[in-house]
Amino acid sequence: MTPVLHTERLTFRPYRPEDEDVFVALLRDEEVCRWMGQERVPEADLRTLFRAILTDVYPQRRFDVWGLWREEVYVGHAEVKKTGNVDGHELITALAPEYWGRGLGTEVVRGLLRHAADDLGLKEAYGMVGADNTASLAMARRLGFRHVRDVVGDDGTVTKMVVVSTTDPD
């Protein structure tokens, strides 16, 4: 079962049915989609995805996925799951734009790395960061991620695949 995690300012909590609207709003936000390197998904599809988290992902223990909360306010989304790009696990994070620039992204990734090492026994973790996302790339470098390769999408966009050891995330 996906555990509840805590960092200095955040609680990583498995989603509950009542979290559907905040999940959908985050993943429909144009800025969030832009920096995640994805098109805006129709609301109905996001609602279907959210329900699948509750009815399939959690019961089948497919991967860990959380809503991120700061003092009971939803601030974002996080996942640790197998990636098809390499033989390993990917960290996925998305923060609501009003929480950017406050160090929460760094805090989320450190929390995910601690979980990956301590609870999942992973030796390394991957991330996929859009080549234009200079803030996230700078954060990744500060946290010790190193560039593995560029992945070019069908539309020509470039995403940087990065990797970090989970045994020394700082």
Description:
The protein is an alpha+beta fold and 170 residues long. It has 5 helices and 8 strands. The strands form 2 sheets. Strands 1-2-3-4-5 form a 5-stranded antiparallel β-sheet, sandwiched between helices. Strands 6-8-7 form a 3-stranded antiparallel β-sheet. Its EC number is 2.3.-.-. GO terms for molecular function: acyltransferase activity. This is GNAT family N-acetyltransferase.
Strand content: 25-35%
Q: What is the element string, with H for helices and E for strands?
A: EEHHHEEEHEHEE
Shape: globular
The helix content is 25-40%
Quick rundown:
The protein is of the alpha+beta class. The chain has helices spanning 20-28, 30-36, 43-60, 104-118, 134-142; strands spanning 5-6, 11-13, 64-70, 73-83, 88-95, 124-130, 146-152, 158-165.
